[in-house]
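Protein modeling request. Please complete all fields; requests missing the sequence field cannot be processed.
Requester role: graduate student
Desired output: 3D structure, token encoding
Chains: 1
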Amino acid sequence: MTQLTIRLLGAPGIARDGAPVAVDTRKATALLAYLAVSGRSHAREALAGLLWPEYDDEHARAALRRTLSTLRTALGEEHLAIDRETVALIPSANLWVDVTEFRARLAACGKHGHPAADTCPACLPLLVEAAALYGDDFLAGFSLRDSAEFDDWQFMQVETLRGELAEVLERLAAGQSAAGDLAAALASARRWLTLDPLREEAHRQVMRLYAWADQRNAALHQYRECVRILEQELGVAPLAETTELYEAIKGNRLSPPDLTGLERPDRPQPAPAADLTGFGKPVRSLLPLVGRGAELTALVHVYERRATSGAFVAVAGEAGIGKTRLAEEFLARVRGQGAMIVTVRCYEGEADVAYGPVADGLRGALAQSGCADRLGALPAHWLAEAARLLPELSVHRPGLPPPPPLDAPGGQSRFFEGLRQVLSAICQGSAPNVLFFDDMQWADAASLDLLAYLVRRLAGQPLFILAAWRSDEGPTVSRLRGLAADAQRAGLGTVFTLKRLALADVLDMVRSLSTAGANLPDGIGGRLYRETEGLPLFLAAYAAYMEVLAQEHEGGDGGEWPVPRGVADLLRARLDAVGEATRQALQTAAVIGRSFDLEALLATSGRSDEEVISALEALAQRGIIREMAEDAGATPRYDFTHEKLRDLAYTETSFARRRLLHGRAARALAERARLRHDLAAQAATIGRHFRLAGQDADAAASFALAGDHARSLYANAEALAHYQAALALGHPETRHLHEASGDMHVLLGTYTAALASYEAAAALCDPASAALAAVEYKLGKVHARRGAWPSAEAHFAAALDMAGGATGRTATGRILADWSLAAHAQGQAERASALARDALAAAESADDRRGTAQAHNILGILARSRGDHAAAAAHLERGLAVAETLPDPSSRIAALNNLALACADSGDLARATALAEQALALGIALGDRHREAALRNNLADLLHAAGRGEEAMAQLKQAVVIFAEIGVEAGDAQPEIWKLTEW
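Delivered output (983 residues):
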């Protein structure tokens, strides 16, 4: 029996014997999840009502039958029990469901003979496995929009399982702490807190663990975070127990952890990281360091070349760019060479705790084996100075003399020198050691002063100082940049500014993951790059369950990817930090679009100029937007640093406010475009804003104008989309829009849609009008392109019958010329000649230059078919001369193509090839897909005759692709699609 694996904790995934299984419909996925979690049989009627509530009984049961058939095919007969009345998933040793496994491990902990809330040594491995199984919430990113009952059931499962995970993590944090594994306990506690930020027990556990891990600064920060969250969400202060714990930590009165609960020698090792994909190895564990090879090599080079004599290296870049990851890779390298690492990590919101990060870093270093012993030779007066910050140093050297007052002359310098001497003593060793300052954009002023003191005294010291900070604006970062510049001028400094990863880097990462065993489809690398825009933090977040995303969303190209929780939290944290006026400006910018300018923002926001400028400065400082480089006289332009920031700001703006802002944006952009005389060029953007503002009439008018503008630029697909949007929004000129849509369909080679558009236009014309004659003529030309000659002639005849007045006389020559071509294609030589002569006479009589060019063209084609090369050349040269006076290039393309064929008949391959290349260049610009294919095919023949085989094959391949695309769409007339050579 095959092994069936069903993963529901996170994005749903199914595998048979380890191979991913695709389930065709969301209803099938929902049904499988319901059967797997409930673990029992269900009546067909109940399942049909659950999943198809909008259907009547008969149709709901029919839909259930189809879905069961889909599941049976995907899973195999042996896993489903289906009869006339009930459906069930058969439990067996070959069925593995992550929800079941998660709950089984939690249940097993209740069989160890102790209270349910306690954790014994046997519980720990079970709890670790349970926590690893819970990759994300139940069916994360999945929903059935048309089944409220299923959504309610899914919601209840999410809440229940989250509660069970909270129990797992609470017990795990306590058990790991009792076992002395503080790092693992802290990770568990922080994950518990993420589940419910309002749980004060979780905040207190995190505070205790930070304090026990000698991260007092982080513990104090956690209390302030608890205060902020409770005030914002509930409007209450923390419990007295929480405040008492804060005071104990602040006063260094916290009792040490109780390690008696678990025996340390027997504590289990943590389980491997959870397999978040559901297929093979965990993707996150395989994620390579990509796109940073040059920087890592350069860092190591600077360390090896200059660390013995002192060096200061800065790594800067935006949030999430990978500064810390690069630093950690570097530190791992040099640690392997015997270097000791002292890490000073700053935290947001802790800038008021003087020297807090430095104290934590030094305590962590002194806790490393043998480091405290190195202070034995340090003069007592320097140790006394450092003991101002680290009172516990007196334990290592009892009877230290009291240091002189700090306010005495030179007091701060003596204090800094004492800290430098302690660092130098700690960092003695065989290899140059590293002092790493991370997240320095959040450093307190006192720590910055100390860093500056250390850097200025680096020369000749065997110390390598590495600092990382965000490239935000603000006084702290400005000061850090100045410090780096001073170090560079002294020959001690190097600055690395990290950029986002390129597409090639992301593709390399995907190839590495695939090589390591991840099952990733072709094409997902490009989608991953578009989603993340090359930001490494986002890449890491998506990589955790990229394999499931790829399958859920059709190889990575279809559907909208959900934003991973870590990415969403990072984005929301940035947006939440801004004030109300700044938030309103941000929402306005998000409505305008990814890129926006100051003028549009001022006109749309409703805020004063000063408020908008201040908001932009605040947003730039937070790394939410960036100012784009422009000419000195241009209006300042801005861009969101990431599309997902704009998207989050937009979606968290209320619907009513979005409509208001879209309306303002549309009117502001339209007024500015009118003043600049580029309304048509901006019409598509204006129309989009009007549509999102709910102002359909204005939107329709804008899209119609945008269609005409795109058509004038031969942007045929875009023109068609704009015309269709105008129709959908109720534009009154429906006949014109249907006809214009038909014109675009013809150029794109979608002939069935072209006929439908022209027929719709014809139905709206007055009978026997010139407008109807024009549409009949266009219908005839579409049928001619498909090779449906009788239909083409019928429409030409109808158009000719209705042609009257000046417009009709002008059209007559053109209709007759195309009719002649249809007769020629059917082998009716005499009839074709008569029609062509009539076409020329009618065109010249009406002084219709386009009709004249067409008539000479067909006369040339007919002469060439008779072997009369002289007459063919004469007509075609005359047709080309007339066509070159016309603004529309289509007549010129036809004349160039036919003259090229005539020159080839005469043996002049050089001129024939040159003419064909001119025709092809014009055809590509015009965007007429079918005729482009014909031109490439003709050019291929000419190149082959000229002995240019490779070039000929390249043109032929491109022609075949286009012919095939149009041929599939053409239906029964398909063979004629490939015969187009002259027109």
